Amino acid sequence: MVHSAIMEMEQVAHAVEVRGIRKAFGATQALAGVDLTLLPGRVHALLGANGCGKSTLVKVLAGYHVPDAGEIIFPATDGASHIAFVHQDLGLVATLSVAENLSLTAGFAIQGGRIDWDYEYFATGKLLRKYGVTCDPRTQVGDLGPTDQTMVAIVRALAILPEHGGILVLDEPTARLPAAEADRLIEMLQSLKARGVAILYISHRLEEVLKLADELTVLRDGRTVHHGEVAELDRKDLVRLIIGHDAATMDEDAPRPDRGSARAILEVSELSGYRVGGANLEVAGGELLGIAGLVGSGRSELGRLIFGLQRATSGKILLEGRDVTDMSVPQHVRAGIAYVPQDRLSGIFKGLSVAENAIVAELDSLVSGLTISEGRCNAAAGGVIRSFQVKSPDMSVPIETLSGGNQQKVVLGKWLRRDLRLLILDEPTQGIDVGARTDIFHIIRKVAAERNIAVLVMDSDLEILSEHCDRICIMAAGRIMNEFDGPGVPITTLNRAIYGH
Ligand SMILES: Nc1ncnc2c1ncn2[C@@H]1O[C@H](COP(=O)(O)OP(=O)(O)OP(=O)(O)O)[C@@H](O)[C@H]1O
């Protein structure tokens, strides 16, 4: 029997109270009795490792999943309509303007039987300015940078909340943003507190949580393991609460490339494209080279140019001395280059199982005769699942039923099984929890050293680059401007270089 009920209560201080929510998917108990109270004007962070149940709780709040048991209690009679959501994928339509995107949920202004566009643009501009968003309401959303896109998604959510109060649920809003850009967003969210909005904030970025949140709830395996004030905690405390012990530190014994003798696997000279203009770099076998830079610095485009997703207008790309500049993507894959894109969804095949996704990059080697050897497929998929500690009930379930972070682990794992020379990772640990991140980099380093693979890592999280990369290059205006030897480059040094151009 479903015990869920949305009860109405009067004159209570909370914006919403969640009591004893349980939700299972088959044998997976995603939520095993979660309690949570959101208060007006306060930010409540919801933390926990990949697959602990955060998104499931958000989907229960949104009414997308019906809980197996528990209650959601709103104080006002129309409480359910005063809760707005910004999901991980933002849910914006890239080909429509900012004004159109906002009106899709808030409704269009109609005058004389037609949409009053002058009013639409005026009203959208006013709304954006109110929250400090400077983009033009006529701009296509796809042409905005990721920070402005995120802010538009938040303004769109806020537009359906009342002038005071309401509840805003944000599921990893800053996952795609560099730290400094995320600060703009955090300032915006701080200002909402004064408006009495109750905010539920999900993030794997602990610095943000420490800056923004007033209180936090930590989930582990669908259960609340901690609830309390944030002011009393530091980063180490958060890590301990999330993973149940201190984070593993850098593996001092991990093999590191000897730069003097290691031969360059990748050599890029004077490479230019749309935003990249004259980039030069080399990556040796076994080396992890990090690329940092602001959005628009050419950081992500550099990876796409090397993989052949974008055409170079000039310059050269050599892979073990062989010119691969004008090769197509399939030719690059055959030459031993792998590219894991920023956008997790473009790396997975929805509808296929976890096992099929795990082996899709090496299908050619698993086919015997006209059939695919099931035993070898299962062994290969099992290898990915074990080494990346993918949390999945079994490998036959559709990949989209895994939590976001676990989908990302499968994408990474499938590429690492191929016979690679160069691995390009664009935001590899986006959405991956703090414990799993370190494990993943340890695996990448080990595999890179054992098989002499060059690894190029583009990441907006400077802590990740500082902790794990042998060298870090700073990109600005399409060029490599500085280079630092790692690991352990201070974040302040990296930030100074990034903003110094
Ligand atoms: N529709 C579904 N069908 C089957 N299992 C599901 C479904 N949705 C979630 N699960 C499972 O429920 C558990 C909790 O997943 P959820 O997405 O809530 O985790 P999460 O804490 O949001 O993780 P992440 O940080 O990786 O986004 C996981 O084991 C996941 O595989």
TrEMBL record:
Molecular function in Gene Ontology: ATP binding
Keywords recorded for this protein, A-Z: ATP-binding, Nucleotide-binding, Repeat, Sugar transport, Transport
CDD domains on file: ABC_Carb_Monos_I, ABC_Carb_Monos_II
InterPro entries, per database record: AAA+_ATPase (IPR003593), ABC_carbohydrate_import_ATPase (IPR050107), ABC_transporter-like_ATP-bd (IPR003439), ABC_transporter-like_CS (IPR017871), P-loop_NTPase (IPR027417)
Claim: NAD is one of the keywords in the record: no
Stored PROSITE patterns: ABC_TRANSPORTER_1, ABC_TRANSPORTER_2
Coiled-coil intervals: none
Domain ABC transporter, first and last residues per copy: 16-246, 260-499
Alphabetized Pfam families for the sequence: ABC_tran (PF00005)
PANTHER family: CARBOHYDRATE TRANSPORT ATP-BINDING PROTEIN MG119-RELATED, GALACTOFURANOSE TRANSPORTER ATP-BINDING PROTEIN YTFR
Protein name: Sugar ABC transporter ATP-binding protein
